Structures are given as C-alpha cells and as structure tokens.
C-alpha cells in the first residue's frame, strides 16, 4: 500500500556507508528523497507532481526550508524558480551554481529532478559541516515546470529566467482542464506580470553544473556510477501532412489508390534509418500520428505525423532534417499524393565546452572513476543556461534505463557518489 511505501528504507538497504564522508551524507540524501517522495505519492508508489501545481510548490517549500536551515538566503521569483544562495569569500561576483527541478510527469519516478536539487544542496551541507566558506558565491536552483506536462512545453522556469520564452504565445496556452496559463499561475499565487519579471538582464551565474539520472543504460552496461555529458541534443520537430484520396477498401483496386497512410509509413521507415546515415549521436522518432477518416474499411485519405530529430551537433541534425524532408517529397511524388511540411520547432543543441569537460575529467581522475562520455537526448534546464554561460552535466546510473515511471531507480550509493563528484567539480569551478 502507498502509505507503507518507504523510499528511505529501500535506499538504505544496500547502501555502501563508506561513501558518507567529507561532509557528504548518504543517509541525509535518502531522507530528503523520501520526504519529497511523499508529496504527490501515487498508488503505484510513483509520484505525480506536475509543474505549476500546488504539489510542486509544496515540494519547493520543503526544499526552501532545507536551504534556510543550511544557512542559505532564499528567494523565489515570479516564475516560481527557487534560489538558495550562500555568500563566498569574494562578494559582488557571479555565482557558481547547480540544481534541477522537483516537478514530475504524471506517475513519474522519484529521482528525475529531485536528485539534482538534493545533490546541489548536499554541497552546502558538506561545507557547513566543516566550517568552509567557498571562494565565490554558490547558488542552488529549483527550476519550475521542467517537464512541461501542464502545457506540453517544458523548461518553463529556466526559459522565463533566461528570457527566451514567447509570452505572446504563452498566454494563449490552456491545460487539459481548459484553464489558461494566467489562471494556472494564480493557483500558486503568481501573476503574469510577476512571471514576466523573472527574466534576468544579467544572469549572475558564472558556471552551472546539473546532476541528473541518465535515463538510459550506457552507465549500467559499463558498470559505472556516473558519467560525463559531452552535449545536450537540440530537437527539431517537423510535421508532415500527407493528403491522398479516401476510398472504399473493398472496391478500390490496389493499383488505383492514393493511400496517405502507406506514404506516411514509407517515410516513417526512412526516418528510422536516417540518423545512422549521418551521425552516430543523432536520433529520430515519430511519436505522434493521426489518420483520417480512421475507419477499418476506408483507405486513409489524410495522415499527419510529427517527427522529433535530435543531435548534439547542429550541422548534422539539420542535415538529417533536410534528408527526411527531401524523402517525404520524393514519396509524395512517387505515390501521386500531396505532402505539406511544417517546421514546429528547432532548438540549437548545447555542446559542453572544453574547459568544463577538462574540469570534470580532472574530478574523475582524482576520484579514480573511469570516464564514460554520454549524450543527453533529453532537454534539461542546463540547456537554457548553456546558451549564455559555460555549463556541465553529470549523469548518474539508472537501473534498466527506466525514467518517468515508478520503477525509476538509482541506488543510494550512486546518488552519494554523484554528490561527491559535484562537490569537487563546484570547488574546481571556484578556482577557475
């Protein structure tokens, strides 16, 4: 039963306590992950804590209490982003920062987001336990609505802060209950005016590092607890609408059809092959398709599909997009049907700079951890900051690569190792 679920107990069951050292406490990490897990806990022992919900704000309030108890100055902007700050020996200079998010997808897991927040805060706890004042200011961020469940568009808090959000479009959005963006803001005591004011003219951050679970199997397959992200892929979404001619499935000969679905199917098979022909780090997916009239005995007359194409290299990503677009046009001509192609989104990828990669290489060498380089296919808040400042990401091993699911799992030992890596990385950034 849900009321008996104890994440803390499960995490501690196989924890290697030798990693509780140098001020980093695995036991504290487990306790905090458990406390957050209770906010929005589901009957499947997952969590539903979507962005801009009272539950997301409740989780933020809990984190803010932890920040205050750790001696941090805490603020929350009009977009709901939480910032905990500890002053450094050198004042009036940009901060070194870390953090993530506490919102989830419906029926999600307990590590995607919260681990990055708790690990970032653990750095402060470690310094506090040893009476250390960092050289530069250090900030821990909890960004709003990273997952984007409410309005089908994520990274909302970090986009608001960096000023890349289109407010003319944002105010037109409605959630599945028909509530406007402004009405949803009001449910957590926020306003459109305050949301707009979250934009910073000066980011005030020198470097940012985000801890996140891998959401894949590469670290698990390599038997490694953590890895170095070398780039965050930028997505391009393209909509293809094939229009043929609907007809009776029994009375229309096979050689006299304008079947929109067979055309779309041919394109989908080509999309599956397209990435490997250009780049080893690219992916392409068709996750949304609509067939009209959608009758069992009717030849499909119209099919709409959206493909999501990603790579950490913008040039190769765009080449794949071009190849797929050309193939769609060839298929339409060969099958005597029309195709309309619309670009829905194109976001630049964020490569991790040489300086930050070199810094993380040094940390892994110091900790005697074998280096595994990874690509982030998913978007993260670090992506928004990475367009303005140097950023880095550290991935943590995910059991079976599962994420966005109650079965999402990362061992406490791996969580604690990631906090040690982050602490050393932050301290190296202080010296850069």
UniProtKB/TrEMBL annotation:
The organism's place on the tree of life at top rank: Bacteria
Residue ranges annotated for the Peptidase M20 dimerisation domain, each copy included: 234-332
Binding of Zn(2+) 2, residues: 112, 147, 404
Organism expressing this protein natively: Paenisporosarcina antarctica
InterPro entries from the UniProt entry: Amidase_Cbmase, Bact_exopeptidase_dim_dom, Peptidase_M20, Peptidase_M20_dimer
Name by which UniProt lists this protein: Zn-dependent hydrolase
Cofactor binding comment, as recorded: Binds 2 Zn(2+) ions per subunit.
Classification lineage: Bacteria, Bacillati, Bacillota, Bacilli, Bacillales
Gene Ontology molecular functions: hydrolase activity, acting on carbon-nitrogen (but not peptide) bonds, in linear amidines; metal ion binding
One matching Pfam family: Peptidase_M20
Family statement drawn from the similarity comment of this UniProt entry: Belongs to the peptidase M20 family.
Residues annotated as binding Zn(2+) 1: 101, 112, 212
UniProt-listed CDD domains: M20_bAS (cd03884)
Cofactor(s) this protein requires: Zn(2+)
UniProt keywords, alphabetically: Hydrolase, Metal-binding, Zinc
């Amino acid at each position: 039963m849900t009321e008996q679920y104890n994440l803390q107990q499960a995490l501690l069951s196989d924890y290697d306590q030798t990693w509780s050292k140098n001020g980093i406490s695995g036991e504290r990490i487990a306790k905090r992950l458990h406390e957050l897990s209770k906010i929005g806990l589901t009957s499947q022992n997952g969590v539903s804590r979507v962005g801009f919900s009272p539950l997301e704000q409740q989780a933020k309030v809990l984190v803010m209490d932890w920040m205050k108890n750790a001696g941090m100055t805490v603020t929350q902007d009009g977009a709901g982003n939480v910032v905990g700050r500890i002053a450094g020996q050198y004042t009036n200079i940009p901060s070194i920062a870390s953090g993530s998010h506490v919102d989830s997808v419906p029926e999600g897991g307990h590590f995607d987001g919260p681990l990055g927040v708790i690990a970032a805060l653990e750095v402060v706890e470690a310094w506090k336990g040893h009476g250390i004042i960092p050289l530069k200011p250090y900030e821990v961020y909890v960004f709003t609505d990273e997952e984007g469940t409410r309005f089908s568009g994520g990274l909302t808090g970090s986009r608001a802060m960096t000023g890349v959000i289109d407010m003319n479009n944002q105010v037109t959005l409605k959630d599945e209950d028909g509530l406007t963006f402004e009405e949803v803001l009001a449910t957590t005591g926020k306003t459109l005016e305050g949301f707009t004011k979250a934009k910073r003219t000066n980011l005030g951050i020198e470097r940012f590092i985000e801890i996140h679970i891998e959401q894949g199997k590469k670290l698990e397959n390599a038997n490694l607890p953590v890895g170095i992200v070398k780039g965050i892929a930028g997505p391009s979404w393209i909509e293809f609408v094939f229009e043929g001619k609907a007809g009776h499935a029994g009375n229309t000969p096979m050689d006299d059809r304008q079947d929109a679905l067979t055309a779309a199917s041919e394109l989908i098979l080509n999309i599956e092959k397209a990435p490997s022909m250009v780049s080893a780090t690219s992916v392409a997916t068709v996750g949304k398709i609509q067939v009209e009239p959608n009758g069992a005995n009717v030849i499909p007359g119209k099919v709409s599909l959206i493909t999501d194409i990603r790579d950490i290299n913008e040039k190769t990503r765009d080449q794949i997009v071009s190849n797929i677009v050309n193939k769609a046009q060839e298929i339409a001509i060969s099958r005597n049907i029309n195709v309309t192609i619309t670009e829905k989104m194109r976001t630049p990828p964020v490569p991790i700079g040489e300086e930050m990669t070199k810094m993380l290489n040094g940390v892994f060498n110091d900790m005697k951890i074998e280096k595994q380089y990874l690509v982030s296919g998913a978007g993260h808040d670090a992506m928004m900051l990475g367009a303005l400042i140097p950023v880095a990401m550290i991935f943590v091993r995910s059991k079976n690569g599962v994420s966005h699911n109650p079965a999402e799992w990362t061992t406490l030992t791996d969580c604690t190792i990631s906090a040690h890596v982050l602490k050393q990385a932050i301290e190296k950034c202080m010296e850069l």
